[in-house]
Amino acid sequence: MPTETFEFQVEARQLLQMMIHSIYSNKDVFLRELISNASDALDKLRIESLRDDSLNAEVDDLHIEIEPDREARTLTVRDNGIGMSRDEVVQLIGTIAKSGTAELLARLKEAKDETAAEGLIGQFGVGFYSSFMVADEVSLVTRKAGESQGTRWSSTGEGGYTVETVEDAPQGTAVTLRLKPEDAEDQLFDYTSPWKVREIVKRYSDFITWPIRMVTEAPKAEKASETEDAEDAEGGEKAPEPETLNSMKALWARSRSEVSDEEYHELYKHISHDWTDPLETIQLRAEGTFEYQSLLFLPAHAPHDLFSQANKRGVQLYVKRVFIMDDCEALVPEYLRFVKGVVDAQDLSLNVSREILQQDRQIQLMRRRLVKKVLSTIKEMMANREENYTTFWREFGRVVKEGLLNDPDNRDAILRICSFVSTHDKERLTTLARYVERMKEGQKHIYYMTGESRTAVENSPHLEAFQAKGLEVLILTDPVDEVWVGAVPEFEGKQLRSIAQGEAELDAEEEQGEEAKAEKERQRAEFAELLTWLGERLRDEVKEVRLTSRLTVSPACVVTDAGDVTPALQNLYRAMGQEVPQSKRILELNPEHGLVTGLRKAHATDADDPGLGETAELLYGMALLAEGSQLADPARFAKLLAERLERTL
Ligand code: ADP
């Protein structure tokens, strides 16, 4: 096949521009990224060769090789791993398949200063393309294990790239960077210096389980085929022995005192493809019949695809130091899908499959322990590292709460690490335990209200009497809140109660005197006729009209009946494609409000007045608007209101 020229995909081109103009100040990380890719390629080949014994691949001396060439000003990173086919090169290297790329780029454009832009790039992690921070041309020669022909890819990062077939490529991938001339003067950025390479590998990639060797002088033949001007390679000199740069020590197998935080962080970055440090490092070991070691990390920020199907769980499984699989879903439940790390088990078979893992009793025990450990770490963060906990909760709280629904065994532990917005303190979140401590004398329930936004809940009529009486209400605005509240019956013996559902039991919270009871009775009798008439008049919209003590300022509000599905939950189910029956809600009236008492009088005077029906409609519409709901017929509401207003002028 002749040389073909391709254009970069739009997003890829934009990202490359940023790399070329180096918006990321720590350029050294390009090497970490290339090594990380090479290491993955070696892992893949090893797994593939176990699975497929007809695969015609060399697996005896899997390694990574780095070759700096001072005169040519090139740096080559080579692996003898799985390699890529021609199609894969175009697919994997020419496009950015990561979800959220477009969004990231939009946010980068908006980013005011360099630190903000750098933070975004760091969160995203730009693998292979980061080579363009230091190179003005990158070429890659690769041959997929088992295939006979290789592919050469080359680009300056501007516009497009070329792809051609090569006949004599060795198995695996070699990435050669033609380093930018301007970095030559600065010792700090001279990536052809063996000292520099050694230092970067030690700092970022020491734990890589494959040997990373440095060859400082290339064998002549190979060099000639890779760079055009190879005549400067002095003949006669013997190539020195390759030097292994990394210790290959599995960090998870070492005790914490032997490993620095930086080393842990680099392992995290290798696993997660994140460029920012994790929030927490969690170590876990088990000795005895089923021995394993584990290192888990809590990231400092949520990935862009936390809620998409593509987000896999980032825990890698090793067996006796040998990489087995990425994203081992058998080890972590979905609500902890943000946890990254490594689990190394001693007694599993090397060719264990995902299906077997799901069934394995030992794995299930291990998973249970990992979950407990993660939850207890979060609890401990909450107590001792509040700032970290706050960051964690902001980024992942929405996901953790899924566990309240899906992991009943750990429900209490999860409830204890949850934080909520509450009417008690506008600035700080509260825990349930603190809520319970603050509960008023005689208060039996933990009150909450769900809604679309904090403002909508704070301004909704349902809250009025609770505010007036000083009863604290939790404000729950994540979509998942609508769901879990139904699954959690109580906390420390206190039931959770929605203030927008069922009867308001405000009066029950305060012991009622005889007098108050008599007053209630009187009101009920007085309003009986109006309520019956309204119920009839609005029967297509509501299932009942009743009086309430929930309101102090508003004339009316709409509530969901005790056993019914809330409108928000109905919407959620529908969005997931599930059928839910439409259940009618209840209209509640404030018997102390002038509009309600006036309506009662008008109805008692002339029950046939056509204006009454319109007032009823307006009253109901207002109650919906006040809680932030949509009207069924907004145009009609507006028309009725305009007519009324006109009459007042
Ligand atoms: P990421 O590593 O985050 O997926 P990269 O842009 O670094 O993103 O690489 C894109 C893809 O190209 C990788 O997922 C991998 O499939 C392939 N790739 C990169 N480097 C190599 C390599 N040395 N050997 C085999 N495949 C590679």
TrEMBL record:
Keyword rRNA-binding: no
GO molecular function: ATP binding; ATP hydrolysis activity; ATP-dependent protein folding chaperone; unfolded protein binding
Region (C): 572-649
Cited CDD domains: HATPase_Hsp90-like
Cellular component, GO annotation: cytoplasm
Region (A) location: 1-354
Parts forming coiled coils: 499-528
Keywords annotated in UniProt: ATP-binding, Chaperone, Coiled coil, Cytoplasm, Nucleotide-binding, Stress response
A Pfam family hit: HATPase_c_3
Function as written in the Swiss-Prot or TrEMBL entry: Molecular chaperone. Has ATPase activity.
Subunit architecture: Homodimer.
Protein name (database record): Chaperone protein HtpG
Gene name for this UniProt entry: htpG
